Amino acid sequence: MQNATEQLSTKVQHADPIIITKPEPWQWDILAKAFLNDPTLNFWLGEKTSEQTLSDYFEAMIKDTLVSGGAVFASPDQKAVLIWTWLGRDPEDSNEFKKKWHDVLDPDGVKRYYWLYDEGELDLDPDTLERSFEPAYMGVHPDSQGKGYGGHLLKSSLNYFEERGYEAPYILASTRRSAKLYCPLVGFHHHKEVFAAESDSEPVAVYLKRSK
Questions:
Q1: What angle (nearest 5°) sits at the alpha carbon of residue 137, between those of residues 202 and 143?
Q2: How far apart are CA 13 and CA 24, in angstroms?
Q3: Domain segments of the chain as ranges
Q4: N- or C-end of the chain: fewer Cβ atoms within 10 A?
């Protein structure tokens, strides 16, 4: 998922991303600012949405990711962060950080979270899940958006996993606009739009699958 205002294409030369091994506040600060008006996070958090709530959510998410087989990438100048979650993780597995992001969402938000993924109709078999990662959250600091950070971070980290034999079978995009940017950039195609209510004209998520 990517904050909807970041332009993915780039004409600027960016340094190779770094792999985060130590969680630090600047990481969740970037994500909280980037996702403040994100429709998917707003759907999950509802009226609780605020920069502080998002900061608490992403702190827990980053820490949970780092202890559960996922990976976190960032630009060396600390302007962009991308969380990759491992899909082979046992969904029943828990730790203090996963419990924390469940607490931030609250029970209703957790239900909306899992409902949204169920609605994606991704149909991935266990073997595929075992060797797959999802680019779950990508945020660029508002002061640096439109400079190609997102595109470079996504392409570089995707190459990192593919070179090691892993797949990225889908992306959950927050908006139609960001979905249109992903497709030509990294070879994904439109799969399904999910709406919070039948009367809504804008989706809360757009699922993309990897083109074969």
A1: 90
A2: 26
A3: 18-168
A4: C
**How far apart (Å, rounded) are the C-alpha atoms in residues 205 and 207?**
6
User: Token pair 């959510």 is at which residue?
Assistant: 57
Cα distance between the two ends of the chain: 21
Q: Are strands 205-210 and 170-173 parallel, antiparallel or unpaired?
A: antiparallel
Q: What is the DSSP letter of 121?
A: -
Give the integer Cα–Cα distance in Å for 4 and 136: 14
Is the pTM above the cut of 0.85? yes
Whether 101 contacts 60, CB under 8 Å: yes
CATH of 18-168, one of 3.40.630.30, 3.30.1330.60, 3.40.50.2000, 3.90.1150.10: 3.40.630.30
Tens of pLDDT along 133-184? Answer: 999 999 999 998 888 899 999 999 999 999 999 999 999 999 998 888 877 7
Q: What is the pLDDT of residues 56-95, one digit of tens each?
A: 999 999 999 999 999 999 999 999 999 999 999 998 899 9
